[in-house]
Recover the amino acids of this structure.
């Protein structure tokens, strides 16, 4: 493999050199970092919540599943070891990292193992380059190791640059861009510059994919958008002075992507867990917005970050910490917003309550069937949740988490709404409804077929303490069963009350009140069923991270013998004892009336 022409006069300085000490506010983060590094020292590696202890001279291809091995080859632990060494100045962290790198080079001939797949390869290149700066004090004293490291790094960078084909997912492209841009910082000369240009092209493509409002199944999932935003901000944080002419354009694109990411966040600053690569971004979002706050001097991003974490501090140093502290305070709120670029709508009710709707079309039968599902934060608490993803993308596992029954959707004769060949963008199906004391969003310009049935769904925020979900079915025939599923956070329990279900935890007690249609002809039977875990009809599980799952409560509102047109729905009310009185229901008009806490409402699903 021709890596000639890639040379490095020295390890580039990427991290700040004016570091004093880790602020006391980061002590808990520091303990987590040391814990992960101690595990790596013992060759204990935990990916997807599966811990394996490997022998000193282990085979890189004989452990774990394919996805587990990809994480092992990606060397995320290299950054942990290098940061711990930089902070503690204890040689054992840098020495063990040096051993693992040399061991990988010896055991993974070019192109022959999992480690040469584009994504783990790109992530490893980035982690090695960042680690080299942090561990330079120990590595520069070993000329033989440094030469071995640089030869392998050059070979890997060339190998990756030849495999940056179009059609790569935005998340994978983000990893490739980060690797190529850093490789251009490491290697001098024309070939190093060419790697940087290749990285910029890939990053530009990922950003354009994030900003494209094509509205179909190619919409980015929240985790993909997070990856693009992280690559954009890291590019700004690590740009060399010679690249300043490109900075203005890069900043404009990064700001746009960060704005999209803001539009996807729940009130607590986490990402919704829709999709097969679902994750909340609990560890990544704060560091990303901390860097962005300093780069853009943006107060609301400082508020989202909360603090300058360990990685941003090491990268920006004392000057960065001072800049972060000097940014003025400005609260951030998850306001009402449509983000069609990623197929999401957020319906807000005050600072601590918001409902996030997934309007992203299903891309295939293997995709998560979460179209028009939602998550709900109420009064500062996670209440209605997406079930998450228990297995890594592409890995066979528990099929429940991708199924209709794992999401907060309407089932008609056991099947949820889906359209695999959308005609227009999610934005085209969004109709905002503003009324006295309420705000709603209706997906009214598109229809989603259940055989001969058509489905329309609307969501409402009623003041700051209640939300409503309405479903309208039209067409010919009469479905045997119509079922609304609501999945709650695992800490909640469900009790049946009079005409309502009481949902309670130690911190919150709320109610779900059915809004049922009663056609002039035909008989409507409504039942409320509570389930949890391995229930035969309505299983309920919550997976906050890959490899972890908990039994979680599910409420099923089920109707039999529904005559079309049919209109129904439910309220989720923060006050479990709120007075409620039903009113007129007009399926033909698509409207439903009721009185809640002494206030009359008329909601429409059209």
């Amino acid at each position: 493999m021709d890596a000639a022409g890639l040379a490095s006069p020295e390890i580039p300085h990427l991290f700040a050199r004016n570091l004093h000490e880790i602020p006391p506010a980061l002590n808990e983060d520091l303990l987590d970092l040391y814990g992960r590094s101690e595990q790596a020292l013992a060759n204990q590696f935990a990916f997807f919540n599966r811990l394996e202890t490997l022998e000193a001279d282990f085979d890189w291809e004989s452990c774990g599943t394919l996805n587990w091995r990809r994480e092992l080859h990606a060397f995320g632990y290299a950054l942990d070891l290098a940061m711990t060494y930089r902070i503690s100045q204890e040689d054992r962290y840098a020495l063990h990292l040096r051993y693992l790198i040399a061991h990988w080079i010896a055991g993974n001939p070019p192109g022959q193992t999992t480690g040469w797949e584009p994504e783990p390869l790109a992530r490893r290149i980035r982690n090695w380059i960042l680690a080299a700066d942090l561990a330079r004090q120990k590595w520069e004293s070993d000329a033989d190791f440094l030469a071995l490291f640089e030869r392998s790094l050059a070979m890997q960078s060339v190998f990756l640059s030849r495999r940056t084909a179009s059609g790569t997912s935005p998340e994978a492209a983000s990893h490739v861009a980060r690797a190529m841009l850093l490789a251009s910082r490491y290697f001098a000369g024309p070939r190093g510059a060419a790697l940087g240009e290749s990285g910029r092209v890939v990053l530009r493509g990922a950003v354009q994919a994030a900003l494209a409002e094509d509205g179909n199944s190619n919409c980015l999932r929240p985790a993909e958008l997070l990856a693009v935003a992280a690559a954009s901000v890291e590019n700004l944080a690590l740009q060399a002075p010679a690249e300043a002419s490109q900075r203005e354009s890069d900043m404009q694109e990064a700001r746009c992507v960060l704005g999209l990411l803001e539009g996807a966040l729940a009130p607590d600053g986490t990402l919704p867990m829709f999709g097969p690569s679902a994750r909340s971004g609990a560890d990544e979002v704060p560091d990303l917005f901390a860097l962005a706050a300093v780069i853009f001097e943006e107060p609301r991003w400082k508020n989202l970050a909360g603090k300058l974490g360990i990685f941003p501090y090491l990268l920006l140093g004392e000057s960065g910490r001072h800049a972060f502290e000097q940014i003025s305070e400005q609260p951030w709120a998850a306001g009402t917003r449509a983000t069609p670029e990623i197929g999401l709508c957020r319906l807000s009710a005050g600072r601590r309550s918001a409902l996030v709707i997934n309007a992203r079309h299903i891309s295939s039968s293997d995709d998560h069937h979460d179209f028009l599902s939602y998550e709900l934060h109420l009064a500062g608490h996670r209440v209605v949740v997406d079930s998450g993803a228990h297995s890594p993308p592409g890995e066979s596992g528990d099929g429940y988490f991708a199924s209709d029954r794992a999401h907060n959707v309407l089932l008609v004769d056991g099947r949820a709404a889906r359209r695999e060949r959308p005609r227009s963008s999610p934005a085209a199906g969004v109709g905002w409804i503003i009324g006295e004391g309420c705000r709603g969003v209706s997906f009214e310009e598109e229809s989603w077929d259940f055989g001969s049935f058509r489905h329309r769904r609307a969501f409402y925020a009623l003041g700051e303490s209640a939300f409503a979900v309405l479903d309208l079915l039209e067409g010919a025939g009469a479905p045997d069963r119509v079922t609304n599923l609501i999945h709650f956070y695992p800490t909640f329990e469900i009790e049946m009350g009079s005409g309502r279900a009481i949902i309670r935890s130690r911190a919150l007690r709320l109610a779900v009140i059915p809004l049922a249609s009663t056609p002039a002809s035909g008989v409507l039977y409504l039942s409320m069923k509570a389930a949890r875990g391995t229930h035969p009809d309505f299983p309920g599980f919550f997976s906050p991270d890959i490899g972890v799952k908990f039994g979680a409560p599910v409420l099923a509102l089920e109707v039999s013998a529904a005559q079309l047109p049919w209109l129904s729905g439910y309220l989720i009310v923060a006050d479990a004892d709120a007075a409620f009185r039903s009113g007129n229901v007009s399926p033909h008009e698509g409207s439903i009336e009721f009185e809640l806490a002494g206030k009359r409402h008329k909601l429409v699903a059209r």
The chain is about 35% helix and 25% strand. Confidence is low (pLDDT under 50) at residues 420-428, 519-523.
